[in-house]
Write a structure and sequence with these properties.
heterodimer; A: alpha/beta; 3-stranded antiparallel β-sheet; about 25% helix; about 20% strand; B: alpha/beta; 7-stranded mixed β-sheet; disordered C terminus
Chain lengths: ~190, ~290
Amino acid sequence: MTPEALLGGFTDAPRQSARAFRAALEAMARPGTVWAVDGATPPAPLSVAAGVLILTLCDGTTPLHLGRSYDLPVVRDWVTFHTGAPLVAAKDAHFACGTWADLMPVDRFAIGLPDYPDRAATLIVEMPALTTQGQRLTGPGIATAAHLGLPETAAFRANRALFPQGFDTYLTCGDQVAGLPRSTIVEAV
Amino acid sequence: MTDQTAYNFAYLDEQTKRMIRRAILKGVAIPGYQVPFASREMPMPYGWGTGGVQVTAACLVPEDRLKVIDQGADDTTNAVSIRRFFQRTAGVAVTEATAEASVIQTRHRIPETPLTEGQILVYQVPIPEPLRFLEPRETETRKMHELEDYGLMHVKLYEDISRHGQIATAYDYPVKVEGRYVMDPSPIPKFDNPKLGGNAAIQLFGAGREQRIYALPPYTQAISLDFDDYPFAASKADHACDLCAAPDSYLDEVITDDQGSRMFVCSDTDFCASRRAAGHSGPMGTPSAGADEE
């Protein structure tokens, strides 16, 4: 195990994960809003936000898939040491982390069952930038319309068409996180 | 932890909170769908808000200001003991003022004061399955949700009309969320149903004994089921509050003696007290909140 894998976790897990979850909840409940999180310093290429989400949501019961460019010994060790999440292939993952290119094609991920749509994957997509300009979002959590820079439109429209099945997405960049639940209707602008 | 006698922040262990948090996020992503979760035994009996308490524990941050109401009242046993529980185990500030609270746990009411962005309303839910009293088998109700087969619910409302001349369901009135899932709003009076949809706050529902969590994100459509010729109508006692004279708040009917005397008072104690503090007064009230009605 690489020594840096032991560093960079929460120093006060109950309070730091509580604040991080609150940001994650607001982000998922209000698509198109961007929230800052802190508390973790994961090894590169993991962003702070992606690291915080993994620490807050993953544990030994949630298989995690690392995208191609994130499947590095230091990242594997860090995730394993701090969460104990089993590292698995895309189709078995409850959570997945990587760039959009890493996670393509996204139809590999679990979308839940017709009677248990909650058994679906949550994707943590690392973005080069996170802006509230871009695709137009409407749906639950949005008063009229919101905008968010997404890596593409078609995949999220196809995902929405599966509702109530489908995967849910977090977009992360640096210490910032935005949410895109499966319920959001995405339109190109 | 250094102090071995202290509780973890917000009582629950971290593994449990992660499990509940994942369920809440899936609930938010699928509005109205009941997410199963591994409900824990809490230091209170089922029926006293074990589901709501677990959801609140998973959401609380140290900076929160918590309000707890039971049937609208801040000062009843259930509300007082849950508020004290989180004061002791999470060290959060508490309030009775709806506008000052960041997290509100509620049993069977939505506060009269409109909620705002940044607030979370946590409901205590006894029976989360709206179809349960019509179909006792979980395997069947799950299939009905999957197939969007809600005809049985309409039959039930229709039988209300044929028997009573109107839809007699006065609380626990089912809503359809975003045109997909029929959801049980917990036993709030149907007077509160119009506040479910389009609400600026995040609404989370926790059922401890039944092990279900579900959610309404902000600004989500939640339409009370009805018929074209028998439209849904939010109803309340046809009175104004006897203490604060509010004509539009939900009222409790209180028997005051053995001679059949009664009074109608706001069920939302914070709403009523702040109206009286602002100088409003009904036939039996004084402008400032007196000690006799607390």
